[in-house]
Amino acid sequence: MNDLMARVEQGLQNQSFGRLLGLKVEDAQEGRVVISCQKRDDLLQQTGLLHGGVIGSLCEAAAGYAAITVLPEGHSVIGVEYKVNFLRAITVDKAVAVATVIKRGRQLIVVEVDAFNAGSDKVAAKMIFTGTPTAG
After folding, report:
1. pLDDT tens digits, residue range 118-131?
2. Domain enclosing residue 102, as ranges
3. What's the mean pLDDT in 102-127?
């Protein structure tokens, strides 16, 4: 496990909401993080699909941790805005979010996130996230 992966994994373990959703780090590199979420009965909406709030939270977590990978250790990111478009349902047992930093500024970091059904290359959700770096 690389240092960035360990840093993201530790961050997720410290986040009670991420633990509640069962988020798992799949990969972490500078400016790019992949996080997954297993589909469970308690995370479904009324028609049996993974709830949009879960998908949004998965994407937001991936975005925030991707932003952290371009900051010095000890810094974090607070989300200030995001927009998510749901393009297709998550129909398999695992959702995967791939987050990539597209702009790193001193006051704002912008991250693009694509969520997929595991094993598919078709985007199920697309998020644009803006966060602000914080020290400590």
Report:
1. 999 999 999 999 99
2. 3-135
3. 97
User: pTM of the entire structure?
Assistant: 0.95
Which percentage of the chain shows pLDDT scores above 90?
Answer: 90
SS3 content of the chain, % helix, strand, coil (to 5): 25, 45, 30
Number of H-type helices and E-type strands within the chain: 3, 6
Q: How many angstroms separate the CA atoms of 99 and 63, rounded?
A: 5
CATH of the domain at 81: 3.10.129.10
Q: Residue 22 in contact with residue 35, Cβ under 8 Å?
A: no
Q: What is d(CA 136, CA 125) in angstroms, rounded to the nearest whole number?
A: 31
Number of domains in the chain: 1
Distance CA 22, CA 42 (A): 11
**What H or E segment, with its residue span, contains residue 127?**
strand 123-135
